[in-house]
């Protein structure tokens, strides 16, 4: 279970970076439709991904899993 969490947190870490880059370079999103600034949503997603990444350290079985966990945390 922790190994799957490790993999998914790795994937979502890149997704959060991608969303941040899209918002930073385009800036065309408005916070009016949903009442919350988009960076707050990305921040919450990043914090959840970070916590799952820390939890994923317990499922490390080899050097690949350790590398994924370290990249996710960084």
Number of helices: 3
Category from helices, strands and their pairing: mainly alpha
Tell me the helix content.
over 70%
Overall pLDDT: 82
Q: Taking Cα atoms only, what radius of gyration do you get, to the nearest Å?
A: 14 Å
Percent strand equals: under 5%
Number of strands: 0
How many structural domains in the coordinates?
A: 1
**Largest sheet at a glance?**
none
Could you spell the SSE succession in H and E letters? HHH
Shape: elongated
The unreliable regions are: none
In short, what is this structure?
With 74 residues, the protein is mainly α.
Would you mind describing this structure in some detail?
The chain crosses the membrane at residues 7-29, 35-58. Keywords: Membrane, Transmembrane, Transmembrane helix. 74% of the residues lie in helices and 0% in strands. It contains three helices and no strands. The chain has one domain (2-73).
Secondary-structure blueprint:
Layout lengths: L1 H25 L11 H19 L6 H11 L1
Q: Which structural traits does this protein have?
A:
mainly alpha; 74 residues; 3 helices; elongated
């Amino acid at each position: 279970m922790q190994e799957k969490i490790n993999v998914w947190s790795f994937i979502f870490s890149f997704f959060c970076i991608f969303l941040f880059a899209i918002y930073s370079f385009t800036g065309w999103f408005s916070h009016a439709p949903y009442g919350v600034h988009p960076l707050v949503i990305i921040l919450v997603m990043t914090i959840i991904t970070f916590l799952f990444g820390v939890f994923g350290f317990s499922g490390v079985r080899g050097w690949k899993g350790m590398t994924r966990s370290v990249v996710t945390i960084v």
